[in-house]
Amino acid sequence: MEDKLLEFKNISKYYDAVKALDEVSFAIKEGEIVGLIGPNGAGKTTAIQTMMKYITPDSGDVYFKGKNIKLLSQNKLNISYLPDEPVYFEELTLEEHLFFICMLYNYTQKEANESVNYIIDKLELYEHKNKLPDKLSKGTKQKLQIACSLLRKFDVLLADEPFTALDPKQIWVLKELFLEQKKDNKSILVSTHLLDLAETFCDRYICLNKGEIIGHGTKESLIRKSNLCPGGSHSLETVFMQLLAQSKEDETCTD
Ligand SMILES: Nc1ncnc2c1ncn2[C@@H]1O[C@H](COP(=O)(O)OP(=O)(O)OP(=O)(O)O)[C@@H](O)[C@H]1O
Q: PANTHER family annotated for this entry (predicted)?
């Protein structure tokens, strides 16, 4: 059994002189939730879109279940994508979007009804189900994206800033939905700036800064990598800030 479900191997991507990713390698295993964390411009979206084959790296390869994704068509990649910007069909209502996804993924009518009703109920979308996207608030558009990404049948969900625009209750609901997926042995890579939240549901973290990995692993292993006291009760935010500071010191030393 291939332990690594999705593997990112020595990926580099430059936009002219801008280094978006530099020899980045990491893997995601079955049934884990991995937090992709880093400041603005760290390379998180570039990494996610490379896994989706939307961006072609300058060098390196991505493997899905041991196969190079270059050799796999989109429909063989059981990867769902929750983009940071809403994407929708202007002429379909919210509910029509959801049934459309069910049709694409060959749900039976019964499965489709149950799944759509479940997600509408969870995300409190009932009063909006007959609206067109341009009549939805920013947060409700985001919930539509979330619902679509969860209805797709996937092994890995790549979620780019999924909590942005959600109210506190819905942030909690989305976290619960992610944990339900994990119980079904699905994997999730979630990019977020909400570190207090991430540490309540992520198993591991990949910390990026300026296109480079500055730490990866569980919070405990990040604490070991940072020079913080191992026994102390450090928040993920403290640990991440320490790793960032160390990476800046390293940069200064090599200048
Ligand atoms: N299409 C593009 N053309 C030029 N530069 C780009 C392009 N897309 C991204 N970049 C640059 O690549 C770097 C990584 O960007 P990316 O969007 O991957 O970061 P991010 O970690 O997702 O940031 P944020 O948290 O702000 O969303 C940044 O310096 C960004 O300015």
A: ABC TRANSPORTER ATP-BINDING PROTEIN ALBC-RELATED
